[in-house]
Design brief:
Number of helices: 20
Strand order of the largest sheet: 3-2-1-4-9
Strand content: 15-25%
Radius of gyration: 27 Å
Distance between the termini: 64 Å
Number of strands: 18
Length: 543
């Protein structure tokens, strides 16, 4: 018997062939970055259920497989070579292979010699990109494909970068574009990215083979490639397993799986990644930090029947809607903060209806709107005023800290910083097209690793060696995170490193400060991202 293990950026695939090279076992599973543990689990299952301790030929392939193969002494087969071996054996006559994986995109030209085109460190236009977009649409990948099947039109969406794509997709959601149309547009963007970015003008003709998870699971993605190329490509049986099958076909060295499993069990990835000092040296230091910031909490009073005239403020942001009610003494009576779910007007309407139902005699003195949806909300609900976001930020900050000289706001997809001089805004720093380092940046990583964003952020508070990830964009950072995991970084240290990168992104990419001291001494931070105490911990002068 022979077996092949394909360890990719997001999944592990394993196949076992009998002596006649017939497939007798296969599995395709996400590893959620627990690569060694998942490999041990799968090989134990194969040993217990299939080979029962008998020797078999084994080799390992995949973008994340080399280090693991070396650790247990199993031969490593380069994944492009493994793919070609499988294609030549199972689908002879193939002229070109288009393969999309979790973070990898490849075009293999097999006619007149082999030529390989691959993406570099950017994961734009791959399975990870599609997963990010599905998350933004509040769908699973299967749901997104089903939705795209009923699309009526498509929009132009950038696919070279997940954060640029979010900047295209989020406004479409907010403006009421059909999820089915957005989903189809995302698949079309992936096709354009793959053809333009990898083929780079070389014609893709002849017998085309589609491989990898995204092309296997999405009928719309395959149809989009067919339409763009003017061909009818083939997604073969076991398309998810071609690299593992190629590794199995090429294997020529016998192993007993219990010995391989034992070697994996002893394997401990050397923590060679660049790290930074921990956020907190002790629990006591954290408690003191937490207590200091809790002093800045805004007092609230009960929302009773005798509250008098009230003022309502509505902030319709890129990913959330916020509503606050204050009385004539500027005391908070009620607040609401929730994701906009692509339907900001309906959510705001529900909040206003709820307020009137709970307080039938409510006297509303004024309603003011701000945020991305300022004009939309003002028009929809006949609000009295619309205030530019910068003015709203400054007004609130000055109320709570009269001598404020710098404001930092990090939202879902935008980052704004204001320099205050002589009681006026003297300079404004904004992120431009890229939303890297904003709230959705952390949320994307948390969900990709299987965590709620709040739980994920809390993991980093007491990390002993936060990963130094710099301030790169999301898709480049995604590759850095994967590499750090291969180098032994724990989830806790990755969480802390990502939170620190948010701060670095604001400092060095948006504000372009040479040091935190350049900002000022009386700094107010705003925005939901600062609920993450790991982000808040980074020193910004006096906060």
């Amino acid at each position: 018997m022979r077996a092949g293990l394909d360890i990719g950026s997001t999944t592990i695939k394993c196949v076992v062939l009998d002596d006649e090279e017939r497939l007798v076992y296969h599995t395709y599973e996400r590893h959620y970055s627990h690569i060694v543990e998942k490999a041990e689990e799968i090989l134990t299952r194969v040993n217990d259920e299939i080979v029962h301790g008998q020797p078999l030929l084994l080799s390992i392939s995949g973008s994340a497989g080399m280090g693991l193969a070396q650790s247990c002494g199993v031969p490593f087969v380069q994944e492009v070579f493994a793919t070609r071996v499988a294609a030549n054996k199972l689908t002879p006559g193939t002229d070109c292979i288009i393969e999309l994986g979790g973070e990898d995109a490849k075009i293999l030209f097999l006619t007149n010699g082999t030529e390989v085109r691959m993406n570099g460190s950017c994961a734009g236009g791959t399975g990870a990109f599609i997963d990010q977009m599905a998350t933004l649409l509040k769908m699973g990948p299967d749901e997104m494909d089903k939705a795209a099947q009923s699309a009526q039109r498509t929009y132009t969406i950038a696919s070279r970068c997940g954060v640029f794509a979010k900047s295209d997709v989020q406004p479409l959601i907010n403006q009421g574009a059909l999820p089915s149309d957005i989903a189809a547009s995302i698949y079309k963007a992936v096709v354009n990215q793959t053809i333009a970015g990898l083929a780079q003008g070389r014609p893709i003709t002849g017998n085309i083979l589609y491989l990898g998870g995204p092309l296997t699971f999405s009928t719309v993605l395959r149809a989009s490639f067919d339409e763009a190329l003017g061909v009818k490509g083939l997604c073969p049986e076991n398309s998810l397993l071609y690299v593992a099958l190629g590794a199995a076909f090429y294997s020529d060295q016998e192993f007993r799986l219990p010995q391989v499993i034992a070697a994996l069990d002893k394997y401990s990835a050397t923590a060679t990644y660049a790290s930074q000092p921990p956020l907190f040296a002790s629990k006591q230091e954290y408690e003191e930090f937490h207590a200091r910031h809790m002093k800045a909490s805004v007092p609230r009073v009960p929302f009773g029947a005798d509250c008098g005239p009230v003022h309502i403020g509505i902030d319709s942001g890129s990913t959330t809607v916020k509503l606050v009610v204050i009385d004539d003494q500027r005391r908070i009576l009620y607040t609401n903060y929730q994701p906009n779910l692509g339907e900001p007007l309906e959510l705001i309407r529900q909040q206003l209806v709820q307020l009137y139902e709970r307080h039938p005699g409510l006297q509303v003195a004024s309603v003011t709107t701000t945020g991305y949806g300022e004009e939309l909300v003002k028009t929809a609900f006949s609000a009295d005023l619309g205030v530019v976001e910068t003015v709203a930020h400054f007004t609130a900050a000055k109320y709570f800290l009269p001598d404020v000289d710098f404001i930092i706001d990090i939202g879902g997809q935008d980052m704004k910083c204001f320099k205050i001089e002589d009681n006026a805004i003297s300079n404004i720093f904004l992120n431009e097209a890229c939303s890297s380092g904003c709230g959705s940046f952390l949320q994307t990583f948390a969900q990709a690793l299987g965590y709620d964003v709040k739980d994920f952020a809390a993991l980093g508070l007491f990390a002993d060696r936060p990963v130094d990830l710099g301030s790169r964009c999301t898709v480049f950072m995604n590759s850095s995170v994967k590499q750090a995991q291969k180098d032994g970084a724990s989830i806790e240290n990755i969480s802390a490193g990502l939170s620190i990168s948010v701060v670095k992104n604001a400092l060095y990419k948006v504000i372009r400060a040479s040091s935190p001291e350049d900002l000022g001494r009386n700094i107010v931070v705003q925005g939901g991202t600062f609920y993450n105490e790991a982000v808040l911990r980074r020193r910004w002068g006096s906060t």
